[in-house]
From TrEMBL:
<keyword id="KW-0343">GTPase activation</keyword>
<feature type="domain" description="C2">
    <location>
        <begin position="44"/>
        <end position="160"/>
    </location>
</feature>
<dbReference type="Pfam" id="PF00169">
    <property type="entry name" value="PH"/>
</dbReference>
<keyword id="KW-0863">Zinc-finger</keyword>
<keyword id="KW-0677">Repeat</keyword>
<dbReference type="Pfam" id="PF00616">
    <property type="entry name" value="RasGAP"/>
</dbReference>
<dbReference type="InterPro" id="IPR000008">
    <property type="entry name" value="C2_dom"/>
</dbReference>
<dbReference type="InterPro" id="IPR008936">
    <property type="entry name" value="Rho_GTPase_activation_prot"/>
</dbReference>
<keyword id="KW-0862">Zinc</keyword>
<dbReference type="InterPro" id="IPR001849">
    <property type="entry name" value="PH_domain"/>
</dbReference>
<dbReference type="Pfam" id="PF00168">
    <property type="entry name" value="C2"/>
</dbReference>
<protein>
    <recommendedName>
        <fullName>Ras GTPase-activating protein 4</fullName>
    </recommendedName>
</protein>
<dbReference type="GO" id="GO:0035556">
    <property type="term" value="P:intracellular signal transduction"/>
</dbReference>
<feature type="domain" description="Ras-GAP">
    <location>
        <begin position="227"/>
        <end position="435"/>
    </location>
</feature>
<dbReference type="GO" id="GO:0005096">
    <property type="term" value="F:GTPase activator activity"/>
</dbReference>
<dbReference type="InterPro" id="IPR001936">
    <property type="entry name" value="RasGAP_dom"/>
</dbReference>
<dbReference type="InterPro" id="IPR011993">
    <property type="entry name" value="PH-like_dom_sf"/>
</dbReference>
């Protein structure tokens, strides 16, 4: 798209990625794809509900097509909807349905008949169009039926996907570089994974034993660097759910330290131990990260100061008031940049030093284990245990978040060029402090030397902070939960300000603040809302029935979602919540669907519009409590490392890693007991998957694409 500030954005071009194409790249596709022109006849979506049948006997036969309804049609008009009608073509004859105004979920319930030609070799083409008073009608998609297949079946009824018109090849408009991966897998019921989970838990509980081949070691050595990242986060989430994440990390520390290693290169590789600790910090420490970095990152974005210390990149500019302009020298620009950067660094170090009490107990316990293990391994290099902690906390957690705050949900958008450079220099400074070197300035870039005094002071402060962070005092209740899932307050999955739209509902959200902005907080237990920080009310996750998008025409915005829930009185209510951008909308929908994934009362259909006046704006039904006109999309979610824990999904992904491991490992009757048991468990799971696979569908006889 080409962004326009005063008018609608212009389309530059598109790339089309099909499921079949991604199936050819099991490890994902990465490369450049040519942009092609956007043809309105190709931009179709949605489905149409039809009943097609052949009536009569030989010599007097008729072809009947009942056009019932359609859903999720493309939005072609400026009001965020369409005015759809259906055009049927057969044997040179054309019939049309009535026009349903302003709806992407129209209902026609009309029947059309054609004299069946002899021989019946023609095709029946059902086209959906958007009617326009001025200009040409817009194509919305079509379905083509083979009459021969229909004669064999007699009658066919169902929802049929709308297909585009034949493609028109045009020249390239540039290229787009993409990385795309398709994950399509079957997750079995949780009891199927219990043997695998129990085996892994037993491995962690036994700990490291000399002369014993550990499954964790085998997983580390038989996976690629790319797969190791996914394996690490799956293991971390699984053991978090089992209450054994401290034991798991401690086992990894022991196994890593048992290898030949140098104190100054500890945990700098991409081993399973390094990846697991990094993933552990991201999954459990995001609120802590926001608490520490948030104020400084916000200040950098708001001030937009020019910060540059590299003489080769300094931009000289005029300064002063009108009539007294002078050109800044290079030294002045660098000194000014040093002052700004040192101010940001000082503020950030102050926040870090004060943050030890705010650090989650489970993270402090993990760092305490790491600190002690490294101290025991290198008693003559006590400096190494400090570097081991900062190598994760600073180099793999704080510094990447400073460099790209959007990826850590600290900002909604990426920084501009000037702010991005400031963040990069600040991230470099944090890395140098995290290296914990006495000189604290041995950087490859000699132009960072003006920061040397601040870096040396920061190194001393970081050492004091680590000492407090890994203090030997045990957190209250930490030992009481040993060996079973901990019981801290529920972790925050998603929070932020959302506008509550006024509707005719009577639920607690509308009674609280219809037409106002409220602070929403989603945890693993409920969706709470209130005027931050006070809380007005909450909706239990078990009462949430659906979380879906709302049609643009309903409130004049494409960033509105609806949360359908059961109110205290037992009646179904819907809250319409507006997000500030499409990214936030998708994040909220994804988070709500994930935490409500096991809710047995989820809806199968919903209304994407709003009930206004005496009918729904989407399908024009007049029954406010009737079934929805579109299917809900509970499974459409974003996948990232901050997902709520789902033990069955993590176990399924570990199963895939285990299958890869078993294929690479030699077949030997004298395998260690743990390995042979693992292969038995994987074999049983493989059998369960084969039984769970649906039978191959028969070849479609009715639906054909016109080429």
């Amino acid at each position: 798209m080409d962004e326009d500030a005063l008018s609608r954005d212009d389309i530059i071009g598109k790339v089309c990625i099909t499921r079949d194409m991604l199936a050819e790249y099991p490890k994902g596709y990465s490369g450049w794809m040519s942009l092609s022109e956007v043809d309105p006849d190709e931009e179709v979506q949605g489905e149409i509900h039809l009943r097609v049948e052949v009536l009569g006997c030989q010599g007097s036969r008729r072809l009947r097509c009942s056009v019932l309804e359609a859903r999720d049609l493309a939005r072609k008009d400026r009001n965020g909807a369409s005015d759809p009608f259906v055009r049927l073509r057969y044997n040179g004859k054309t019939q049309e349905s009535t026009v349903v105004k302003k709806s992407c979920y129209p209902r026609w319930n009309e029947t059309f008949e054609f004299e069946l030609a002899e021989p019946a070799g023609e095709k029946l083409c059902v086209e959906v169009w958007d009617w326009d008073l001025v200009g040409r009608n817009d194509f919305l998609g079509k379905v083509v039926f083979s009459i021969q297949g229909l004669e064999a079946a007699g009658q066919e009824e169902g929802w049929f996907r709308l297909w585009p018109d034949k493609s028109k090849r045009r020249g390239s408009l540039g290229s787009l570089q993409l990385q795309v991966k398709l994950r399509d897998e079957t997750v079995l019921p949780s009891h199927c994974y219990q043997p695998l989970v129990q085996l892994l838990c037993q491995e962690v509980k036994l700990g490291r034993q000399d002369g014993r081949v550990h499954l964790v070691t085998l997983l580390d050595e038989t996976t690629t660097a790319e797969c190791r990242q996914e394996l690490a986060i799956n293991l971390v989430k699984l053991f978090l759910g089992q209450g054994l994440v401290k034991e798991f990390l401690d086992l990894l520390f022991e196994l890593e330290l048992a290898k030949p290693c140098e104190p100054n290169t500890l945990f700098r590789s991409n081993s399973l131990a390094s990846k697991s600790m990094e993933s552990f910090l991201k999954v459990t420490g995001m609120p802590y990260l926001h608490f520490v970095l948030g104020p400084t990152i916000t200040r950098v974005f708001e001030e937009k100061k020019y910060v540059e210390l590299d003489p080769g990149k300094v931009e000289i500019k005029d300064v002063g008031c009108s009539g007294l302009h002078r050109v800044q020298t290079e030294g002045e620009v660098i000194e000014q940049g040093r002052q700004h950067l040192q101010s940001y660094l000082g503020e950030l170090l102050d926040a870090i030093v004060r943050s030890a009490p705010a650090c989650p107990p489970v993270i402090r316990a993990a760092f305490r284990q790491l600190f002690q293990r490294v101290g025991e391994r290198f008693p003559q290099h006590q400096h190494a245990k400090f570097v081991a902690v900062t190598s994760f906390l600073c180099l793999r957690f704080f510094s990447p978040a400073v460099m790209t705050p959007k990826l850590f949900q600290l900002r909604d958008a990426h920084a501009d060029a000037r702010t991005s450079r400031t963040l990069l220099l600040l991230a470099k400074a944090i890395q140098l402090v995290g290296n914990m070197e006495p000189a604290a300035g041995r950087a490859k870039e000699t132009w960072l030397s003006p920061l040397l005094p601040a870096l040396q002071q920061g190194t001393a402060r970081m050492r004091d902070f680590i000492t407090r962070l890994v203090g030997t005092e045990e957190d209250k209740g930490e030992e009481e939960g040993e060996g079973r899932p901990p019981g801290p307050p529920p972790a925050v999955v998603k929070e932020g300000l959302l506008l509550v739209h006024k509707t005719r509902g009577k639920g607690p959200l509308l009674a609280a603040a219809a037409g106002k902005k409220l602070h929403f907080c989603l945890t693993g237990e409920s969706l709470t809302f209130g005027k931050s920080p006070s809380r007005i009310g909450a909706i239990a996750l078990g009462d949430i029935l659906a979380a879906e998008k709302v049609e643009e025409k309903s409130f004049g915005s494409s960033h509105v979602m609806q949360v359908v829930y059961m109110a205290a009185g037992g009646q179904q209510e819907t809250a319409y919540l507006q997000c500030k951008c499409v990214n936030e909308l998708n994040q909220w929908l994804s988070a709500l669907r994930k935490v409500c994934g096991n809710n047995p009362r989820v809806l199968r259909s919903y209304h994407p519009g709003v009930f206004r006046g005496d009918k729904w704006s989407c399908c024009h039904q007049r029954d406010r409590t009737g079934l929805g006109c579109d299917r809900t999309r509970h499974g459409v979610t974003l996948q990232d490392w901050s997902d709520p824990l789902d033990p069955t999904v993590e176990a399924q992904r570990l199963f895939h890693c285990g299958v890869s491991l078993s294929l690479r490992s030699p077949t030997d009757a004298a395998l260690p007991e743990g390995l042979s048991r693992l292969f038995v468990v994987l074999g049983d799971l493989e059998s369960c998957h084969r039984r769970a696979q649906p039978p191959e569908p028969p070849a479609p006889a009715l639906l054909q694409l016109q080429t």
